[in-house]
Write a structure and sequence with these properties.
The protein has about 190 residues and is α+β, with helices and mostly antiparallel strands. The chain has three helices and 14 strands.
């Protein structure tokens, strides 16, 4: 069998596989974007373990895909959906404060006025006090990020993404160690 004949014989298989790969790639491009494709949050805790009576921080680091933005926590128009992070704190933990980063003021082709937005990588900080009544041992704190992601052409539906901050509660006065200085060392 000559090489040309073998190639001609294999041509239908090659074309079929090529068509399948092309169709799969085209399907991926038509697949609608989901908010979770554009916004990726992660939670970090400043201390491990956290002694009762101590204030600690939870940082929610949010990465917004290049070319997209989310509305800032303090929006400039009532109809906009602000970015928020909510912690479902169990008994024995008390919310001290939540701090959002400074927003960018940007003008977009679809808006007459500048908008307050977040782009790139941002960090929301939640200060929490472990009260004397906090249960000892491992603890998971559910967090919810609420936002709407947009680019210059479209806005995705408003979304909520769930994540968890994991820590351990220790007795009052227990030794502790600072965690993630690359996040909590920055002010």
């Amino acid at each position: 069998m000559t090489p040309t004949f073998r190639l001609l014989r294999a041509l239908p298989t090659i074309l079929f596989v090529g068509l399948f790969v092309f169709a799969a790639a085209a399907q991926d491009e038509r697949k609608p974007l989901r908010p979770s494709d554009v916004v990726k949050p992660q939670a970090y805790v400043s201390l491990q373990p956290v002694p009762r009576g101590k204030i600690f921080e939870i940082a929610v680091v949010i990465e917004v895909h290049s070319g997209f933005h989310i509305q800032a926590n303090k929006v400039l128009e009532e109809y906009l959906i602000p970015a928020t992070v909510a912690a479902e704190l169990p008994a024995g933990l008390r919310l001290v404060s939540t701090t959002y980063p400074k927003s960018l003021l940007k003008k977009f082709t679809f808006s007459e006025k500048p908008m307050a937005v977040y782009e790139g990588k941002i960090t929301v900080r939640i200060r929490v006090e472990a009260q004397p009544s906090a249960a000892l041992g491992p603890l998971k704190i559910p967090l919810v990020l609420r936002f709407q992601a947009c680019n210059d052409e479209l806005c995705l539906p408003p979304a909520k993404l769930s994540l968890v901050a994991e820590l351990e509660i220790a007795k009052s006065g227990a030794p502790t160690q600072a965690q993630h200085p690359e996040i909590f060392g920055q002010r």
